[in-house]
Design goal:
It contains five helices and five strands. By secondary structure, the chain is an alpha/beta fold. The chain has one domain: Dehydroquinase, class II (Rossmann fold, 3-Layer(aba) Sandwich). A five-stranded parallel beta sheet has the order 2-1-3-4-5, covered by helices on one side. The chain binds 1,3,4-trihydroxy-5-OXO-cyclohexanecarboxylic acid. 1,3,4-trihydroxy-5-OXO-cyclohexanecarboxylic acid (DQA) binds next to loops.
Length: 151
């Protein structure tokens, strides 16, 4: 059974706790706290709940996705470098069957070739890449629209 007010799990993967300090020419000056504040503002506007979590550990992200069924209606995820390496994260998303939106701060297709492949993209509703931290807001809006269209 789906919860009545949609609850969205917003996940950030490895190194995203360093936002603001990490390669600002690529990822900008905003911090993870800024990302979370923006996501929470957008969630209020849309009338949905959000829970934001970050981990550097693939297993922890897997545990969170695996436990999401029944509590969350969908997932917004920036998998960081796990995007390009993790079949396990892809299997977790397809395994729980919750709609997910993949977000990247940078335009991964304008960067090194190894960033052009995402293991997760084929099991996500869609992907947003290259709009800075605004991508999280667009990702949440797109997911909520998708959930409401499916009602
Ligand atoms: C990223 C892009 C990835 O290639 C990279 O490993 C990251 C951040 C982004 O948000 O642009 O850690 O997901």
């Amino acid at each position: 059974m789906q919860p009545s007010t949609p609850q969205v799990l917003v996940l950030n993967g490895p190194n995203l706790q360093l936002l603001g300090k990490r390669e600002p020419e690529t990822y900008g000056a905003n911090t993870l706290a800024d990302v979370i504040a923006g996501v929470e503002r957008t969630a209020d506007e849309l009338g949905v709940g959000v829970e934001c979590r970050q981990s550097n550990h693939e297993g922890e992200l897997l545990d969170w996705i695996g436990a999401a069924l029944g509590t969350f209606s969908g997932i917004v995820i920036n998998p960081g470098a796990f995007t390009h390496t993790s079949v396990a994260l892809r299997d977790a998303i397809s395994g729980v069957g919750l709609p997910a939106v993949e977000v990247h701060i940078s335009n991964v297709y304008a960067r090194e070739a190894f960033r052009h492949h995402s293991w997760l993209a084929p099991v996500c509703v869609g992907q947003i890449s290259g709009f800075g931290i605004a991508g999280y807001e667009w990702g949440l809006r797109a997911l909520v629209r998708h959930l409401r269209d499916a009602e």
